[in-house]
Amino acid sequence: MFHGPQQVDGDEDTQIGVLCRDVLGDFESARIAHLTTGNGVAVELFEFDDLEAFEEPDPKQPGYFHFCVIDPNIEELAAKIDERGGEHHTDVWELFPGQEYRMTYCKDPFGNLVEIYTHSHERIYSNQGDY
Q1: What is the pLDDT of residues 97-128, one digit of tens each?
Q2: Model pTM above 0.85
Q3: Cα separation, 57 vs 5, whole angstroms
Q4: Most Cβ neighbours (<10 Å): which of 56, 63, 74, 110?
């Protein structure tokens, strides 16, 4: 079922609102769309209403923002990134309360954001409805 992009207000206290502030910093509002291809490649699109620059990373700038890998043991992978000169950047998040889908963000040694999901995008976001 197609739900279209999800609207997220930067000051809302919902699960997705708090998660987005942890990752993106302060923002007024955003629309987020998750797309996947038949072979499992996923693309996330972010559209922000407020275009003022904010702290690094800056997802409001055109181009590459982050990449995502899938690993069922995200804590272990985040610890390896830390040990090798990177940084565990955000908390580990349960994407939908009461479900097994979790994610976190790290920075590699060069400062690039690495998103780690426990499951594929199509499995996580299928039939979830609104965040």
Answers
A1: 888 999 999 998 888 888 899 998 778 877 56
A2: no
A3: 22
A4: 74
